[in-house]
Structure formats: structure tokens, C-alpha cells
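User: Show me sequence and structure for the first protein, then do the same for the second.

Assistant: Starting with the first protein.
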Amino acid sequence: MDLDEAYEQCRGVLAKWAGVASAAKKPLTEADTRAKLIDPIFRDALGWTEESIVREEPNAEGFADYTLWSDNRRILLIEAKRAAPRFDLPDVPPNKPLLVGGASLAAAPVQGAIRQAAGYGAALGCPYVLVTNGSQFLVVASLDNRALPERQALVFSQLDAKRTFRAFFELFEASRVRGGSISERFLSFYEAKRTYVALQYLQQPD
């Protein structure tokens, strides 16, 4: 699936959800979010097949909502939350890394969801975890020598914006994930940080 087709699929899912939410006579549940937002986005817009998805996988910490597989290994774990209330997340460019322990991600519900997902990921040996309410997405490494607050995260909100969706699609589209898109992205900003630190050191006066 190409980017334009995927974008239109995603916009359709979001529009349909807006209609459901506005007509709902009671608060929508996490199950609603999963069935009407997360499933169709990953299936119809990102190309993940049912054969690649395991739901409610048990682990020492609880049950993972989704694990996505390739070549008999887990490559991404998804922790789903209700669509409302929305996460208190900053409006930042989609490829700007944020420190998990920084002020931008300090809201208690966000921190709790990150810790839960990272715990599941570590328990299952899954390298990356994604926390989402169906319209906001936050991804972080779960198998990392750094303490969780010292890790970097990427945030994607407003998927109806083409620029944001492009970055989201390039990171999470099924064939790209299998090709290492998430690992490459995380390695790139850790390498950039190491380069910056090295330059700062070289520029210090003797």
C-alpha cells in the first residue's frame, strides 16, 4: 500500500470514529477503541495481517493487548487505552525525540501507560512498545540498558495531518517495520546524541 492510499484509509477510520463518538449514548470503552480505531488503522492503513498479530498475550506483568510478529519473533507491542480522555502530550514535530522522564511526558496517565507497556515488553522480550488511545501514539524502546526515564520516545498526534501521518506510516507500516524502520529511527537519534556529546567534548578549551 502506498502512502496516499494509506492516508485516505486512516482519515476514513478517524472520520468514522468521530461519528461513532458523537452519537454514543455512554462513554466508549477501551474495547471500542481497539475494535474501531486501532485494529483498522494497523490492518487497513498500515498493512498488518491477522497472522502477524497476537492479542492478549500473557506475560509475567499481565496481558499485552497486541504483539506484532515477524519471522517468529515479536517486533512491536501495543498497549491500548480508551480514546477519552486524551493523553496530555505536547504538540511537537513527529520525528522529534522526547525524554521519557522529561517535563513533556510528565503527566501521570502517560507515565503509567509507558511503565506498563515497557514492563510487558521487557517480560516478553519485545524490543519496542507503543502506547495508544487510537489517535495519539507514543513509542519507546523496552529492551534498553538505560533506565526508563533516560530513554527517548517518539510521539504522533493528529494523524489526519499529512505530514504527521507520513512519519507515522514510514515508521509503522508493516513491511517497513520488518525491514528495521523502528530500530533505525531509534539508533539514529542515539547516534546523533553521542555525536553531539563528542563534539561538545572536543570543543572544550584545554
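Switching to the second protein now.
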Amino acid sequence: MKNTILLVLITLSLSAGSAQDFSQLQLNKISPDELSRDLELLWQGIDQYHSGAYWYTPRDSIKAAFDQVRAQLKDSLTTLGFHRLVAPLVALTREDHCNIFLPTDIRRAIFNSALLFPFRVVFLDRKMYVELDGSNSGKDLRSLEILGINGRSPKDLVLLLGQHFSSDGFIERVKYSDLSGFSFAYHHYLEFGEVPSFELVYQNKN
């Protein structure tokens, strides 16, 4: 059996917008003052009431990260935009019982209205495989190994998207497990917004 590395370009139909554009969800914006108050409440919750907040990451490191985000709150943001800033702060605790989620109605809107990465994936031994193919590629990519997505390796994407949520300590495999299924498509959207096309490099078994 011969393994061949192939490339396929998958183009999605976008009504309007581009990468990192979340306008199709029609979310209201929150003022900088309100965002700053919410950020302060989050900081107090972690610093004063979470007994395990600094088991894995020093307080100074987490506080510095909060200060960096606080300095960015100069313009109004949607709930989704704010979430993209604060989710990595919560994940810095590396404590799996401390996590942050978007409101249910926004999560539902993303799955119902947004154009997402059109595959359900599974990770086996840190390799990404197509479990369900919902693309318009004209090929059946099920069970094939994905080696790259728009120039990024699965490993790099797991490290990037894994910053959206906590896992116990430095257990890397938790990130792979939590990004399996449709979770990868969801977190890819949170990071990049609607992407008009995906250039996939995959391993073909002949």
C-alpha cells in the first residue's frame, strides 16, 4: 500500500464577510467600561475565590496576562470578541475545573448560522483524521489523515485552539481529546472567524 500526500482546496460559500468576521451573528457590542468591569470580576473570581488558580501558573504570570488584556479594552466588543480575549486567561490556570463558555444562544447561533470547518475529526496518537466529511470537495475524505490546514499543522492548531480552554496541568492529550468531533470546527471558528476556503494537505492511501 502506497501513501501519497495530496492537496485539496475546499471553498465555502460566504454571503458576506471574511476571515475573522463575526458580523453574521449580529451580536450587540459592549462598551469598554462594561468590559473592564467584567474583566475585573473575572480577575477577582480567579484571584480571590479559586483555591487552585496558581497550582500550575504563578500569580504574577496570570496577573500580567490580565493587565495586557485590560490595556486592549479601548473599543466596544461583542460577547464573542470579549470571549476570544478572556478565554486564554482562564486557560492559564491549567485547572480543568476552571473554564469559561459562551452563552448557549451564541453557541447555538454559531452551529446554526456560521460557516465552519466542514469536517468532524478525531485524533489518534496526536494525528488528525477525518471522521465525517461535510465538504464540497467531490472527494470522500473520510478516514484520511490531515497533515495541514491553510499552512498550519494539526499540532500547531491544537496548541493554538487549546488556549481557549483549560486542562489539568500540562497534560497535552487532553487538548487533543477536547478538540475531537465538531469541537475542532467550533474552536477554529472562535479563533479565525469565517474562513472562505480551506487548503487541506492530507495523506492518501492507495
